[in-house]
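User: Structure please.
Assistant: Input sequence and predicted structure:
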Amino acid sequence: MGILYEEGSRRYLDALSTYMRRRIKQGSQANVESVKHIPSALALRQRPSVPNERATVGTMSETFNVLRLIFSRLGSPVCPNGHYLKPSLEIAKAMSKSGEEMGQLTCPVCGEKFYAPSAEEFAFNSDGACEECGGTGKVRQLDESKLIVDENLTIKDGAVASWSLPGRNFMPNVAEHAGVRIDVPFKDLTAKEKDFVLNGPEKKYKMDFLSGTGRVFHDFNALYENAHQAVIRSAQTSKSERAQKRIAEFFTYSTCPVCHGSRLKPKLLKQLVGGKNINEVANMQLGNLPAWRDEVLAKLPDDMQKMSKAVFNEMIENLQPLLDLGLDYLTMARSGNTLSTGELQRIQLARTLRTETTGVLYVLDEPSIGLHPANVDGLIKVLRKLVAQGNSLVVVDHNVDIIKAADQIIEIGPRSGELGGKILDQGTPDEIKQDKQSLIRPYLDSTAKLFARKVATKLILSK
């Protein structure tokens, strides 16, 4: 499976310019005799990377993009004097204009001219971000109790936790150069020494510095960062996800007091569609959104129906693969970093279907993992749609229903690990059912004896 993906990706990248290839990480050539007739490949991994704090189900699946469009075109804007404007085709047309005319409206009650929020302004990762939390829905505060690991440790032995962050490991030497003892327990330092460690001024010290590789830098201008600054600066400059995760341990998080977790500027929540603001809709279960759509359409004027249905149809098209994959219980507002690996892979699969690629080899690693048996049919439906779009699928899975649905089965075994790796059989499901040497044949034709755990008949309590 890895060879198919790596070789397909490598051959695709080989077709790009040298300039582009330098900027994209490439896999090495597969150590096999030959790989022929392979198209460019995309892998949908069993364990996708964990999204950052700004990602939500809505942004990852792109359903929130359509919801923003719905609120900008079909909403009830509020003028500066608090008057609601009923949804109309004129408002929708105003939002479709460009330049300074975009979204310019006149209140029919007070005559005030104002600008209604655009779809971009409803984006919490852009113009619509709450100014207090920056669009994360949470505010963080440095937890000072986490700056010192253990007061019984010396600074030299790692008493100051924030000085173990990347790029700060030389800070104990700077503190020592400034007159702080680093070889006695932190609890035994003077009040002046402790204050310097925690709150000392940012200052450059000229000193000899011994690097981790043993190289000595003479007259090195070392910038001192106290225990607080080390965390704040690291949070501002670190780019890697691993480093940010480590930095996050120094903070406590609470719901933003301004946007109350909606991530958006509060004024944007005044605009309603079907009696709900965008945050209320984003917190509805995905399975309930089609009913909300019907309620909204029933209340809109006749001259808006054609345009409104077109926008809502786009939302349902984005939504349907998620519903087919059994994710109807999720909400658009759900943070991406709280999802299970199975949920992440299914969102990834739904997004892939919507791109409508053709001629691509998709390599899927156990897409049924974490999926309720009742939703396997939905998964098969999505996989067949990818094939219908002109793509090829190689799926590694142990679910019998998915194996039965395949056009071609390659049975590899006979066991796992070192005892596997041999092709035992290959053919259509019907062909495999006729082969008595196949280990999966009994499961395909339902003749295998299934073992089930015995149900406990007694309740035994132990102290």
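The domain at 144-253 is CATH 1.10.8.280 (Helicase, Ruva Protein; domain 3).
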